[in-house]
Amino acid sequence: MSLREALLVGLRAARANILPGLLLQAIMACILAFYLFHDGSREFFRLVGESRQELGVFFAMVTYTFSGAVLPEIMRVVLIQGGRVTLGNLKSVATMVPLWMFMGSAVDVFYTAQNGWFGYGNDVATVVAKVLVDQLLYSPLFATPVITGYFALRAGGFGTAARQAVFQRRFLTETLLPVQLASWLIWFPGVTFVYIMPPPLQLPFAVLVHTFWVLILTTISERGRH
Description:
Layout: H1 3-16, H2 18-37, H3 39-55, H4 57-79, H5 87-118, H6 124-155, H7 160-165, H8 169-196, H9 199-225
């Protein structure tokens, strides 16, 4: 597949997720409005922020694992399997836990570093700087390759052929690039909302975006198998 074809595949994947992306942005905007203008909601988010600060990286690992490994299988059982839990569901959760525990800890470290580099403010310059570093460096150079590569290894049973495939040019053009383009549709506006929030609430808000993104990524991955 040529680079041009890969871009077209990626753009089609992005267009296919426009509606979920718009829904996510609307939800994030509503949550932000509740935080800014509703006292009860602000108190709730204060408690969430305190929990995040007290638990530290453990909060990130648990919430990312639940939203990335457990929640998609719960939705699959409820919406597709008629409430019947199978061994496949348990195996799916077990194989996804290591990825999302690692990514949760990585996100925690990255957000802490961002606050160290650019400060704790939510002025336009600070938010723009954090969003650009997040989406133009962290995402394409680390997050997307790690997550997409793990999904591919898992789909291939972590075998030798799967390990070799993720280092081939075809994986870059046919899988990694389309996923990255779809990711930008969700995460560019998503992390903008995240970085507007006070630091203790940035990770909880990121978990909301992550939940939607994992559901979309799972759909993209499963489409690729058929």
